Amino acid sequence: MIKAGIIGSTGYAGAELVRLLLNHREAEIVWYGSRSYVDQQYAGIYGNFFDLVNSRCLDDDMESLAERADVIFTATPQGFCSSKISENLLKKTRVIDLSADYRIKDPERYEQWYGIHHPTPEFLGEAVYGLPELKRAAVAGARLVANPGCFPTCSLLAIMPMMKSSFIDRQSVIIDAKSGVTGAGRGAKVQNLYCEVNETVKAYGVTVHRHTPEIEDYLSEAAGEAVTVQFTPHLVPMNRGILVTAYANLTADVSDEEVRSLYEKAYEDEAFVRVLPEGRVPETRWVRGSNYADVNFMIDHRTRRIIMMGAIDNIGKGAAGQAVQNMNIMFGLDEREGLMTVPMSV
Hints:
Elements: E1 2-7, H1 12-22, E2 27-33, H2 42-45, H3 62-66, E3 71-74, H4 80-84, H5 87-92, E4 94-97, H6 107-114, E5 128-129, H7 132-140, E6 144-146, H8 150-163, E7 174-179, H9 194-197, E8 202-203, H10 212-223, E9 230-235, E10 242-249, H11 256-267, E11 273-275, E12 293-300, E13 305-312, H12 316-330
Helix pairs in contact: 1-12, 7-12, 8-10
């Protein structure tokens, strides 16, 4: 059995990790870490775990946890994991970090977008970006995995097949994205109160959202050249989900069949990426509670643009589900283990 510890287990992504790992046949949770709820019953914080989890929350001491766990998940704010990582710790355990600390390889760029000094840049080169559909082989041998952000996961999966082709102007990509409120975290903030988010939709982080450089970095890798995108996220009054609608100018009179062939070839062996049938658009409700990503496209021949679409659960494939998928790959398991939950329809 893989012994797993979770730092930040009482946040939304942390609680989703608990839910998924409890159904995992090859893993057991040995540490429910939470700085805010030390010594409190975990099931007293999340009542859905009543009679399922009888453990109390422990602290966020990663050095002590490393003595007990084969893998540590850090579902923590930016700056925490990077302040704790050391060579000594990575000799004892593997780490899957759900924050942005190791996603951006340039420490100055990280500091520019996140406003935080990176304390351990020496590990940036080693950390593997944990998007299995892009980095599966590297994830398998990693000691430190940077679990991707929710917006980048959905954006990359929707756009990558076209970005690898010659069919679009790679500098013309515009990404319009929508997120459920869990993406803002569980902390008490006025702007996330029910009355503030219900019955309204708003753009936020316009031109400055912190996921922009992550999206650009890995689209650039797929393209083989530096790519700049226009990314605008929106907050919508739902709990879970990411919907991406991305636009790009076509460089050729490409047919729907040619583009569909690109998508089907790109994802034919991927367990969690579903290329939808012609004419069907991705919807967040059809991936809710799952690790699936639904993608599709439509070509507007009138405007010579392609519309690339994707939907994921932001705390599923956008966070905890992908983290468990990465754990499975790192430990040589079937990457579907613990993740074959049918999406919730309502």
